[in-house]
# Entry
Amino acid sequence: MAISVFDLFTVGIGPSSSHTVGPMRAAHAFAVKLVREGHLADTATLRVNVYGSLAATGRGHGTFTAIMLGLEGYDPEAILPAEVDERLEDMAATGKLQLCSAVGTGKEIDYKVEDMMQHPLTILPRHTNGMKLAALDADGNVITEDTYYSVGGGFIVRDGAEGKIAANIEEAVNQQPYPFTTAAKLLEHCATTGLSISGVMAANEEAYRSKEEIREGLLHIWQVMEDCKDSALEREGVLPGGLKVRRRAPEWHKRLSKEDKERDPVFWQEWVNLVALAVNEENASGGRVVTAPTNGAAGIIPAVMFYATHYSPGAQYWSQEEREDVIVRFMLTSAAIGVLYKEQASISGAEVGCQGEVGSASSMAAGGLAEILGGTVDQVENAAEIAMEHNLGLTCDPIGGLVQIPCIERNAIAASKAINAAKMALMGDGQHHVTLDEVIITMRETGKDMSSKYKETAMGGLAVNVIEC
# Structure
């Protein structure tokens, strides 16, 4: 295991981790390279080719504008929505790109979104989310070029970096006291040390950061989730993109606040639905969001954490420190489960369908909640397994290539599944027929067998059977 909790939970912008955050990170990396290697002065123009799923649904996911922002040197974790709007308006008005301006002195060149070349039917060898970036001199000669893949959750891989990545992974694994890539190994560590799943994950994180840094970092991520939800509750009207999907979170919040003034447990599901919808409406608006583990599934873990911090036994009596302890443990447990999906399968909707995004997030949330509610490590593993088992085969077919229908409601449904999975696991003794590793492998194989038209290409399912306007 060489994946950190801070790899799985990262701050970015909507609407998609693999189609917005990843491409921006790739373009940002290319911009940094131009400055670092001294190529910027000789660069007269660019050549950008976008392939496969990135091209097929890129317009609805903001892929092309994200690449433009990345080429200007902006990083998805640092840029604010207001800056996004400002830069895109300037690009549209002038037709100019301020290449590398956010990572150096910058250089103005003539380059527009329309200059990008899109190849939706061409799949590069490594992954369907591929892109090639090249810098050209005034005579049209290639100065430098790179091929990147956005492999889900905002993770990117550059062709030619495999050896370096492998070396870094080996070094990282050697630093960790309890490395794992399977649930079986994770449970073995728990059995031999007496640690909980969150405890094993925390110990591995401490190989790189202090306890204080881990806690501070996770609470910052949680605060971004809260800010994301709160921002959505203030934004009325319709979502961008042409489908004219009405924002429901503000109206639902007003209604729930009147009907449930005392936070009656009978309303738990309405509040969970609200949090999931709010986060995903903000994501669909291109707002600041936490990949958890992807943008398309960003509402599930915040919604289930809301349940954990408001409806756990005695939650109303917790101190602020106790509440923060719960948040940290929840996120560490969820991340440990997320590592298993990233290592053994995929969290990319373009690679394995929405079972890899919403299914993984539901599984992660179920495990996190089971630990918070007092589950044993076997019950936590069982909760995560149940949640994924009942998301197997879930397709990724957003209408219009937008992360709106069915994505927003799907997050609310998956959050409730996670809560139910945790409760079912806690009613048992942790013993079950299907292991988490087996269900993860099944998800991976199901994704391989799934028709490509159901994997974020807008070529099947609701994307073609529902009229957009």
In short: The beta strands are 10-13, 45-51, 96-99, 107-110, 117-119, 130-136, 142-152, 155-158, 288-291.
